[in-house]
User: Fold these one by one.
Assistant:
Number 1:
Amino acid sequence: MTISKNNFFKIERGGINTTFQDGGRKNLSHIGIPTSGAMDIRNYILSNALLKKNLNSAVIEFAYQGPLLKYYGDKIFAVITGNVKFQIIKNNNKIIEGEPYKVFLVQNHDQIDIQSTNKTVYGYLSISETFILNESWGSISTNTKAKIGSNNGEKLNNDQQIYIDHTNKNVSLTKLNFINSKIENIRVIKATNFDYFSKKSKDIFFNRGFKVTKLTDRMGMRLEGNNLENIVSSNIKSEGLIKGVVQVPSDGNPIIMLADHGTIGGYPKIANVISADFDKVAQLTPGSLIKFKEVSLKEAERLFQLYLLETKNIISQIL
């Protein structure tokens, strides 16, 4: 793709952890390549659906404080999803308070100031046009731990320019009334090493709360509050990991594997977060208290089908 120098964002402030993401990489764990991709899949999909784009299009994902972007070029349209506070600073210095899930116009020299997420972690910025990015293994998703993906595997930094393939798309100023719901319990199924843990620890896992610590990033979420006793072995032969699996190292504090998790690990696994609840897990901020609830594999599959149907129904309100 030929890079046009006429249409681009300049990053005035990079934000805390701003990266390019899409739906992630598929079927590469066997060669050590993580899936990566958007942390909150539903909000990612909605950002593209609101602009009537391919749902797997590249977006900017940000955490906590987002970027400040100044636009140069022909008009485009954009949308931000998630519980996000942001402003559009027009080229005449007029300030417009942004509304998540509402498409807005971006003109030459306008700025988008993504100030913060609200009691959540991740938000998404999609544009009507196409970011010009390099793919790695069929995805533009950036994994900063592995240094793979677009932007040379790095998060976005001050003074960078993000080029856009501009095709003059006409987009309606769509708005979606959407509320990010929360659930009291995180539902899980038993994992392969469930029986490594004492009966007391199993009872603790399902009946007491855990706190999300500050040691949390796109790779994993470390919990604390109730140590889990391993009665077999605190280390096992390294084996494959999947997103959402709950590992328990020797200190007894569980770790939930997130989008950029390693593909193998040697800590016993007590449970796995069901796919239907992963978006909500990804949005938990440090200090959040969570409880786990066991469901059967059959119930987990039913809940995921319901999650897909709910997402489809939400999108139908846009289209």
Note: The chain has four helices and 21 strands.
Number 2:
Amino acid sequence: MLKISHVSKTFNKGTVNEKKALTDIRLHLEKGDFVTIIGGNGAGKSTLMNMVAGVYPMDCGTIFLDGVNLSREPEYKRAALLGRVFQDPMMGTAASMQIEENLALAARRGRRRGLRWGVTREERARYHEELKRLGLGLEERMTAKVGLLSGGQRQALTLLMATLKEPKLLLLDEHTAALDPKTARKVLELTDEIVTGRHLTAMMVTHNMKDAIAIGNRLVMMSEGRIIYDVKGEEKKRLKVADLLAKFEEASAGAFANDRMLLS
């Protein structure tokens, strides 16, 4: 489903602020793979996602999604194929619009807009059922402005919007990091239910080592812009947090110290 070959990215090349963010990344995802990506600060996790989404141009390499070469395609053209949930709950929704209007926008992603009535009766019935699955009571508040929702409710809505029109690839960039622990757990459970239930292909960046082990069928570890560990299947199921810490220590020559990961 996704084939990343020899992708590299350097920011501020040729200046004193030059930063090599990715170096010769090679990653292939099969259809239905749910990959958790873990690594220290500055490991290149979010940059990798931004490369796939087309936020930044690549220095070199190719990216194919379901056989389509996206390597030089702009971000807006890739949007029809991708679903994305950001770390900030405010980024994935339009606060001044109603819940059902946000869902209608998501359902029309990649399609031409016309002057027809915004939300049809059939669509409203579908959105009611989809919201009911979240278990947050939002199906009874479909005409409420999204700006009135809590951060967790908005993130759950963003997740639903990103998967309403089944994407070729779902990108989850630390989408529970800004939530309180209880809400984060709920959103993570919804994520696992939606991705596995609909057999979506997904990449999830996280700093939480327990979540990285428990969620998905594959785990990728990054360090200094490179993939240093790629594990799946039964081997992933047998992983412990201590194993990941040992890998980080090995990669950093015994100097690993990342507060976010150790605390989580």
Note: The chain has a mean pLDDT of 88.
Number 3:
Amino acid sequence: MHTAIIQRIMGQFLMLFSFTLLPPICIDLLYQEDAAQAFFYSYLLLLTVGFLLFLPVKNTKSDLRLRDGFVVVVLFWMVLGFAGALPFYLYESLAISIPDALFESISGLTTTGATVLVGLDALPHSILFYRQELQWLGGMGIIVLAVAVMPMLGIGGMQLYKAEAPGPAKGSKLTPRIAETAKALWYIYFGLTVACAAAYWVAGMSLFDAVAHSFSTVAIGGFSTHDASMAYFNSQTIEIIAMVFMFLGAVNFALHFSVARSKTLMPYLRDSEFVLYASLLIIISSLSVYALYSQSANHDFWTAFREATFQAISIATTTGFVTADYASWPVFIPVLLLFASFIGGCAGSTGGGMKVIRVLLLIKQGQREIMRLIHPSAHVTVKIGKQPVKNSIIDAVWGFFAAYVALFALIMLVLMFNGLDQVTAFSAVAATMNNLGPGLGEVSANYASLSDFNKLLLCFSMMLGRLEIFTLLVLLMPAFWRK
């Protein structure tokens, strides 16, 4: 374990992160509000701590090993979770505890979108912007952004990328150099954000709201600057724009890259994961519309179509925006949407959940086992498109699924032991582990009523989901620390 190089990287990360507190300071001064001091003190503290970590090891030269990469990634999210909580805690008007500030910070960075804050419409613009900024930075993983600038720091980044990149096809690259890959992903990410903000602005949002909501839309985050979320705007045009960019944000960014490079939509249509992803959204939306229209006396067809389609895309992609109180709809719909969030977005996207590609592989493996029962001597190969999938990948997917289910059940049981009812506990774990945000029962609106212990446990659940289980669990294995 190269502790010196890990310390150097963490110091650099903290110094880099401190500069993300400067835009909220400028916004606070622009609107002449009272949160600038909290951000400024946080900026100075993080910059100082980062510099003190960096200074003793500034001349350390060494390559990162894969094991070091796992440590850096987990430390990065833990340290940044605490660092991001500083402005919330230091802004006295919020009057929130350390667990609450930590919950809000980790929820933002992991793009979960669960919140403990109420009265958003009355909060300073700087605090509102900062929440959205956390989600935007976390959307593609701040690690990937750091990989893009690693050459300037004199450190190779492939180890970090492998530890952070989501989905079973880890380590695949769009361009020969990993830094170029990270830059390509961020160009696409930034381009989608600009396009989304412009569309929101033209559709009637204020410039502040347009930029803020574009951050959380493309990041598949779900934070809003208003308590009513997207329902605040009551605009069908804005809802359509949100649905388009939520859909795009949950698509594998490697596909966006291929489409931009080839200038044709065929990469989408040839991709098995994308086809299943789009098909599932259509099926889930259709079922939601039908159930809402047929089982709710308060919804005509077009109202049911508008509300159910928006909620279906938002929840299924793990964004978490809402335009209606879907928890009060016929019980089939909220349960369907919650289960849809388990599938989530595509691998290599900003979406949460288990990822569509894993579900596709589980389905194909199930088909293979049935064929083996029918034809015991047959050699059946699992393929994605025309490409055969290695058995090691399928084994990894089954291992992930088993770990996911086991941890889900364990965290849910602990929450119930600590006083939560079954619906609240189940939906809280689903909403945090899938990086979704809103749940059912006691957490349908926010998580403010939960105990500090439950909030901290759900922070761990968010981290598990964001780091896709194994990246975090591997550090808990004794074998990882043996030389």
Note: DSSP finds 22 helices and two strands in the chain.
